[in-house]
Amino acid sequence: MATLLLVHAHPDDEAIATGGVMLRAKQQGHRVVLITATRGEMGEIYNMDEASVRPRLGEVRTEELRQACELLGVDRQEFLGYRDSDMAGRAGNDDPDCFHRALLPEAAERVSAIMRQEQPEVVVTYTPDGTYGHPDHMKAHQATVAAVELVTSEGLAPAKLYFHAIPHSLMLQFEERLREAGSAPEEATVRFPGIPDELITTVVDVRDLVAEKRAAFERHVSQMDPNSPLASMQGHILEAALGTEYFIRARGESGEEPERDLFAGLG
């Protein structure tokens, strides 16, 4: 049995971005550890009363994450204890307790403390741009890379380090399919460039796990925008959006190009 350790910024990120590889790791008998930097206190609220839920949104999203983790087979979930920074350019970025404002050595030490306990073979976080520029995602990348450097210097290096990525071609394909299906208005499509396709090293087919992955995401009720494409997409559009997960391997080798499994080459 090996250990997969993932570092995410907010509740729900784990299900959308990496729910498939988490489920696959559990199927293969591996241990799954999730680190979540914040409790998503600054996010928008859907399907609930804003006035009553906002003061306790962190508690609500903690419970939603617990339920999602049960479906994803998470063996251990830990928070880093930072406040959600909100989207780039908003007032939440200035909160002294937010993840964005955390000193990098401090944040890296919090991540590395869990790494020392778990000694994971495989570590996953975001690309340097945080997928779409969210300050908490970028800080998660920075803190994870720094933590890996710390434990490596102590002789506890993980065998492999991955950055979750969305290839540019997939973004173009996804938006085109949404337009063809008429499942969402133009302004509702997600618009960010993605990562150049040639940088992708690892392509994991999780089409057989799409239903479970979506079910985990749906546990995050307070974040399920009923007008979002993710809430209404079906069939081939859903499979295109959630059925394959892409990564850039930043550390380690397996002898496969492209890789089809995060644990490839680990025996």
From TrEMBL:
<dbReference type="GO" id="GO:0016811">
    <property type="term" value="F:hydrolase activity, acting on carbon-nitrogen (but not peptide) bonds, in linear amides"/>
</dbReference>
<dbReference type="InterPro" id="IPR003737">
    <property type="entry name" value="GlcNAc_PI_deacetylase-related"/>
</dbReference>
<dbReference type="Pfam" id="PF02585">
    <property type="entry name" value="PIG-L"/>
</dbReference>
<protein>
    <submittedName>
        <fullName>PIG-L family deacetylase</fullName>
    </submittedName>
</protein>
<dbReference type="InterPro" id="IPR024078">
    <property type="entry name" value="LmbE-like_dom_sf"/>
</dbReference>
